[in-house]
Fold each of these.
Amino acid sequence: MTQAGRAYFGRRYLISASHRLHSAALTDEENQAAFGRCNNPHGHGHNYVVEVRVAGPVDPETGMVVNLADLDAVVRARVLDRFDQGNLNCDEAFRNLVPTTENLCRVVFDILKPNLPAGELECVRVEETENNSFEYYGG
Ligand code: NI
C-alpha cells in the first residue's frame, strides 16, 4: 500500500459561552445597525460546536493521523478550559476583536496550529446555531 497522500481526521468539541457583538470602532448607532439584537448590552449565549480537522500522513505504525487522546488533551488545555462556560468578550483574544463566530474560528485556529501533537491543522469549523457555521483555514 502506498504511503503517500494525506488523510483527514475531524473531531468535534462543545464550547458553551456568551458574547456580545460590539465594535469599539463603531458608534452605538452603527453597532446597533450592524449587529442588531446581538448588540444587546447583556449579551447572550451559544452552544458552539467546534470541529478541528487535522491533516497528515497515516502513521505506518499506529495507523492514525493523530492520536485522538493527545489531540483532546491539547484542545482541553488550550481551548475548552479557556473558553467553555465563559464570556468571550472577557478573554484577551477578543479585547480588540469582535467575538463573532468568524473570529472565534480564527482565534481557535491560531491557538491550535502551533500546538498540535501530530499532523497539520487543516481547518477549524464552528457551528454557532443549527443554521450558521463558519470555517477558517488560515494562510
Ligand atoms: Ni451570538
Note: The mean pLDDT is 95.
Amino acid sequence: MDVNQFPTTAVLSDYVTVCELDGIKVVRVVHPKATAAISLFGAHVLSFQPSGKKETIWMSEKADLSGSKAIRGGIPVCWPWFGKAAEPSHGFARSSEWTLNEHRENEDGVIISLTLTDTADTRAVWPHAFHAELLIEVTNTLKVSLISTNTGDTPIQIGGALHTYLNIGDITETTVSELGNEYIEGGVRKPSSGHTRFNQEVDRIYTHANETVMVEDPSFQRRLAVTNQGHNAVVVWNPWKALSASMGDMADDSYQTMVCVESAVYDRSVVLNAGESHTLSTVVSAQ
Ligand code: TA6
C-alpha cells in the first residue's frame, strides 16, 4: 500500500500525519527508518515498509475500507477472543473505532498509541469493563503490542491474536520454520516437523513454536523474522485457492502472495483479575 497517495487531513509532527481513505482515518508515518500506515478503525496496521526494503505487510486489493467490516490484510487485532470462540468471529476490536492517544518520535522512529475502552456496544457483546492499548513502534522493525487491562472488579478471561498478513513473493516457494513439535488443525492435535511448506489450505495452531518464527521467501530473496511474546500459540494460515476465491474481499489468486503468522492466545487462556494487565506482542523484521 502506497501511504503517500492518500490526502492529508492533519499534520501531527514532522513524521506523523493523518489522512482519509474511503471511510477510514489512517495515521501515516513517514520516517527515514520506515513508513507505516495504521487505521483507527480496528487499530489496524495496513503497511510497514523499512527504508530501502520491500513492503512487509500484505493488504488485499479488495479489502473493504469503508469502516463497516473488518479489513482483509494488514494486522487485524483479534480481541478479546480468537476465532469463533464467540460472536463476532475474532472479537469486536478489529471492527471498533479506536482513539489516537499519543505519538512520540525521535531519530530512531515513531511510537503510536491507540486505545479502546468499553462502551454500551462492547458490553452488549462482552459484559466487562476494560482498557486496551495498542502500541505500534515503527523503527527499522515493526513492533505491535496489545496491552489489555481489566478495569472492572471481577476476573475476565481473554484471548486474541495479532493476525499478521505477511507480504511474500510466492507461497509455493515459501517455508515457515521454528514452529515446534505440535500443532492443532480442525480441533485435532498432530505432531509437527517444526516447519511447513504450502500446497493446500493451511490453518494451524502451533502450540510449541519458538519465540522467533522464520519465513523464508526465496522469490523476494529475503527472510522475515516474526518474534512473539505473551502468546500461547503461533497460528499459520493460508486460505489457498478455493477459500480465497469464495471470499468477497480477496482476489481469487491473491493467496499466492500472503501468509499469516499470528501471535495468538487461543482458548481465552489469559485470566486477568481486577486491575491486572497482559501484553501480547509481535515484532516483524525483514532480513
Ligand atoms: O487465524 C486463522 C483464521 O482463524 C482462519 O480460520 C481463517 O478463517 C482466518 O483466521 C480469517 O478469519 P476472518 O474472520 O478474518 O475471515
Note: Residues 3-286 form a domain with the Beta-galactosidase; Chain A, domain 5 fold (CATH 2.70.98.10).
Amino acid sequence: MTEAWGPDDDEPRPHRGPVKVRVPAKINLHLAVGPLRPDGYHELNTVYHAISLFDELTARRGDTLTLTMEGEGTGELELDESNLIIRAARALAARGRVPAYARLHLRKSIPLAGGLAGGSADAAATLIACDLLWGLGLSREELAEVGAQLGSDIPFLLHGGTALGTGHGEAVSPILARPTTWHWVVAIADGGLSTPAVYRELDRLRATDRPAPPVPLGGPDQLMAAMRQRDPEILGAALGNDLQAAALSLRPQLADVLKAGHEAGAIAGIVSGSGPTCVFLAADAAHAQEVAAELTAAKVCRAAVTARGPQPGARVI
Ligand code: C5P
C-alpha cells in the first residue's frame, strides 16, 4: 500500500492540529428544476452564490472519530453516523486510505433544513479540515468528487463565489465576472423544510391539471447577464426559483414573509433553495440594515440578518 504521505519534503504531511475551517451558506440566485431523473435527482440549472453566514468546523487529532457541536440546532442535529460531517470524514478517510480518526467540533450559525445548504457546508468544511489534518493533500477537485457522492451542494461549497451548477447541482463552473458585492437580508424561519419533500411537491404540482406557473424569467443566462450590469434593480428582476411554488404550497405562511420584505422596501425577494429561508436583495449595506430591521419588527420570521455575497468557499482560518 502506498503511504498517504511520503518521506519527500514536498509531500503533504499530517497536521498536528487543530485545523479550523470556515464555510459559508449558499443561496440560489436562479434555480431552474428539470425533470425527475431515474436516479431520484432532478436535473438542475442553477446559479449558486455564497453569502456571509458561516459555520466553523475544528478538527483535532484523536484516536477515534467524534463530533460535538454548539450554536444553531444543538440538541436537534444528530451527531451519530447519520450526520453528514461523519459521513464526509469516513468517505475521505476511505479515499485517502487512512483511519478516520479525528475529534471534530462544529460551531453552527447556518439554520438546519433552511434551504441554505448548511449540512453540505459542514461536510465541505470537514473535507478541507480532515484533508489537512491527515496530510492527504487532495486537490479541491478531488475533494469535490468525494463530496458529490454525499450532497449536491458540497462541490459548490468547496468552491464558493458565484458559480453555475448543473447535473444534480454537483457540476460546478465558476462565473467570471468583475467582483461586485451584493447585499442581502436573510429571513430565517421557525422550523425547517425537508428538501426531498419540496422536490416531491414540485413534481406533484407539475402533474396536476393546474401546475404552478413556471418562473417567468429568462433563466441562468439572463441572471448572469444581469450580474454583469452590477445594478441591484436589474439583478433583482432576474432572480428566480422553480422550488418557490412548492415551498409556498407546503408552508403558505412564506407568502407573508415575501410580502413583508417587499413592504420593507427590498428590491426583490425569493425563497432560498428549497426554503423555508427567504432572501431579499438590498441596494447597499445601509438599505439591508433597514430592511432587516423592518422585517424583524413585522414578526413574520424567527430572525432577519444581513449578509454579503459572494464569499469564498470552505477555507482554513
Ligand atoms: O443532494 P442532496 O442531499 O442535497 O439531496 C437531497 C434530496 O433532494 C435528494 O435525495 C432528492 O430527493 C432531492 N434532490 C433532487 N434533485 C436535485 C437535488 C436534490 O430531487 N438536483
Note: The pocket of cytidine-5'-monophosphate is lined by residues 40-42, 44, 151-153, 168-169, 195-196, 199 (CB under 6 Å).
